[in-house]
Specification:
three-stranded antiparallel β-sheet, alpha+beta, 15 helices
Length: 508
C-alpha cells in the first residue's frame, strides 16, 4: 500500500510538473462548440501520445489542480466523445435527462425528414443535371453551325459550278475539235505563214434562215490576220460579187449547178455539193479559192450562220457601232426592214439591228450606202471591232452564263478547223490585242462590170472579155502583202519612238 501511495504521489507530481504547471492559455483545451469531431479526436490523441511519452497516466487528474485551469466537466468530456460519432445529436441514456432525450428524439425525427428532403432534392438535381447533360450533348455550338453552313455553301457552289461546266462542256464539245479543257491546260500555238502571221477566213451564210433564196451563198467574206508575237491584227474583205472561176488552179474542175464560173459567193455552195454536202470539205475548198485570189496563206476557217451574229450581240447586251455611211443623214435600207441609223456612233444596238446592218447595201433603194457591197464590208469590219471591244469590257470569258449562252448558239451554226488547244492561244491573243483590228481598205483594188446580165466585181482595170485580165490577181496580192507588212512596221515604230524620246531626255 505504501508503495502504491508512493507511486500515485510520484505520478501526481510528474503530471503536475508536466501538465498542471503549463499556463492555461497554452494547454490543448477542446471546446465542443468550436471544434469538429474529427479535430477533437485528433487533439485527444495528441494529448494522449504526449502523456504516454512522458510516462504519465492521461486519465489521472491532480486533485489539487485549480478548477479554473480546466473548465471541462465530465459531462462536457462525454459530449466531445459524442461529437466523434456519425450522428452528433445522439447522446448516452445514462447522461441525457428525460426531457433532453425527448428533444433529441424530436431533433432526430426532424433531421431524418431533412435528410429525406435533401435526398429528394439531390435526386431531382441529379435528374436535372443528366437532362442538361443530354441537351449539352445534342445542342450544336454556334461555331459548328457556321462551319456546317459554310460547307453547305461550298458544296452548293461546287454543284452549280459542276452543272455549269457540264452544260458548257456539252455545248462546246460540238463546236471545236478536241477537248474543251485543252483551251485551259493544253494550249497549242497557232499555225503561221512564212511572215509569222496566222490568217483566218471568216465567212457568213444564211443557212439557218428558212425560206432564204440564197441561204448557201457567202454574203460576208473576211480574212483576219493575227501576229501572235506582237499581238496585233488586221482584217480585209473580199467582195461577194467578185467574178471567179470556181475551179481552184491545180485542182480537178469543179462542176456546179450554176456553172463553172460565177460570183465568188457561190464557191462554198458548189464545193459542198461536190463533196456530198460536207461543210468541212466545202469550207476547205473555199479557203483555197481565197488563198488563190489574195496570195495570203490561210491556216484556219470559220463558217458562221447569221443567227450566231445576232445571238452573240444579244448575249453581250448590245454593242456600240461606228456606222459608216456615204450620206450625212446616215443610212436607210428598204431591203432590211427599213433599217435607219445615224452616221457615226450608234449605241447599244441589239442583235437583230446589227444583223440587218451587216447585210445592208441599198439593194432596193435607200441612201447612205452608195458603194453597195464595199460600204457593207466596211460596216462588217466595224461590227467585228465593236464585238471585240464589248466582249473584253464585260469580261465575257469570265461570265459562265454568257459563255454557255454563246456556245449554245454556236452549235451547228459554226464550223471551224481550229482545235480547242489552239483556241486557248487565240483567246490569249484576242484579249491582249494592242488597239483595234486594223481595217485594210480593198476598194482601190476592184472595179465593176457586167457579164451577161449580171453586175459583177472585177479586178481594177480588168477586161471582162479577157480571161487573163479577169483572173489576174497579182496587183491584189501585192497590195495586201504590202498593207500587212506596213501594219507590222507601224507597230514596231510605235515601240521605237518612246525609246528614242527617252534617249533624247537622257542626252539632255
Amino acid at each position: 500500500m505504501a508503495n502504491k501511495k508512493a507511486t500515485k504521489k510520484t505520478v501526481a507530481k510528474t503530471k503536475k510538473s508536466t501538465v498542471s504547471k503549463k499556463p492555461a492559455a497554452k494547454r490543448k483545451i477542446i471546446d465542443p462548440m468550436m471544434v469538429s469531431p474529427r479535430k477533437a479526436r485528433k487533439d485527444e490523441r495528441t494529448l494522449a501520445n504526449t502523456a504516454i511519452e512522458n510516462e504519465v497516466d492521461f486519465e489521472v487528474k491532480d486533485e489539487e489542480e485549480d478548477n479554473d485551469d480546466t473548465f471541462l466537466s465530465e459531462e462536457s468530456l462525454y459530449s466531445i466523445d459524442d461529437l466523434s460519432r456519425k450522428d452528433h445529436r445522439k447522446t448516452d441514456k445514462k447522461v441525457t435527462p428525460m426531457k433532453e432525450k425527448k428533444e433529441v428524439e424530436l431533433d432526430k425525427s426532424e433531421h431524418e425528414k431533412t435528410r429525406e428532403e435533401l435526398r429528394k432534392e439531390r435526386a431531382e438535381a441529379e435528374k436535372r443535371r443528366k437532362k442538361a447533360g443530354k441537351k449539352a450533348k445534342t445542342k450544336t455550338p454556334l461555331w459548328a453551325k457556321i462551319l456546317i453552313a459554310f460547307l453547305i455553301l461550298i458544296i452548293a457552289a461546287l454543284g452549280v459550278a459542276g452543272w455549269y461546266f457540264f452544260n458548257i462542256y456539252s455545248a462546246a464539245s460540238g463546236v471545236l475539235e478536241g477537248n474543251p479543257m485543252d483551251a485551259l491546260i493544253n494550249k497549242k500555238p497557232l499555225a503561221k505563214d512564212e511572215q509569222g502571221r496566222t490568217n483566218i477566213l471568216i465567212f457568213g451564210t444564211a443557212e439557218d434562215d428558212e425560206g432564204h433564196g440564197g441561204a448557201m451563198l457567202t454574203d460576208s467574206i473576211l480574212v483576219v490576220s493575227l501576229d501572235q508575237d506582237r499581238k496585233i491584227a488586221s482584217t480585209f474583205s473580199v467582195p461577194r460579187d467578185l467574178w471567179v472561176n470556181y475551179t481552184v488552179a491545180g485542182e480537178k474542175a469543179l462542176s456546179c449547178s450554176v456553172g463553172y464560173k460565177g460570183k465568188i459567193n457561190a464557191t462554198y455552195y458548189c464545193a459542198q455539193r461536190a463533196n456530198d454536202n460536207s461543210k468541212e470539205e466545202g469550207s476547205k475548198y473555199f479557203a483555197k479559192k481565197i488563198m488563190e485570189i489574195t496570195g495570203i496563206d490561210i491556216q484556219y476557217y470559220v463558217a458562221v450562220d447569221f443567227s450566231v451574229l445576232r445571238d452573240v450581240v444579244n448575249t453581250l447586251g448590245g454593242i456600240d457601232v461606228d456606222v459608216h455611211a456615204t450620206d450625212d443623214r446616215g443610212i436607210l435600207d428598204y431591203c432590211m426592214n427599213n433599217l435607219k441609223l445615224n452616221k457615226g456612233m450608234n449605241y447599244n444596238l441589239d442583235g437583230e439591228t446589227v444583223l440587218r446592218l451587216a447585210r445592208a447595201r441599198n439593194a432596193k433603194g435607200g441612201y447612205g450606202l452608195a458603194n453597195s457591197n464595199f460600204d457593207r464590208e466596211i460596216n462588217q469590219q466595224r461590227i467585228i471591232n465593236a464585238i471585240k471591244d464589248k466582249a473584253l469590257n464585260v469580261g465575257i470569258l469570265l461570265d459562265l452564263n454568257k459563255v454557255k449562252s454563246m456556245l449554245a448558239s454556236f452549235g451547228e451554226n459554226v464550223k471551224t478547223n481550229i482545235t480547242w488547244a489552239e483556241m486557248g492561244t487565240a483567246i490569249d491573243v484576242a484579249t491582249g490585242l494592242h488597239g483595234d483590228v486594223e481595217s485594210i481598205d480593198t476598194r482601190p483594188l476592184f472595179g465593176t462590170g457586167r457579164i451577161g446580165n449580171q453586175s459583177v466585181v472585177i479586178p481594177k482595170g480588168a477586161n471582162v472579155d479577157s480571161d487573163y485580165s479577169l483572173y489576174n490577181y497579182n496587183k491584189i496580192q501585192l497590195y495586201l502583202r504590202e498593207q500587212l507588212d506596213q501594219d507590222t512596221k507601224d507597230y514596231d515604230k510605235s515601240l521605237e519612238q518612246p525609246a528614242e524620246e527617252e534617249n533624247k531626255e537622257e542626252n539632255k
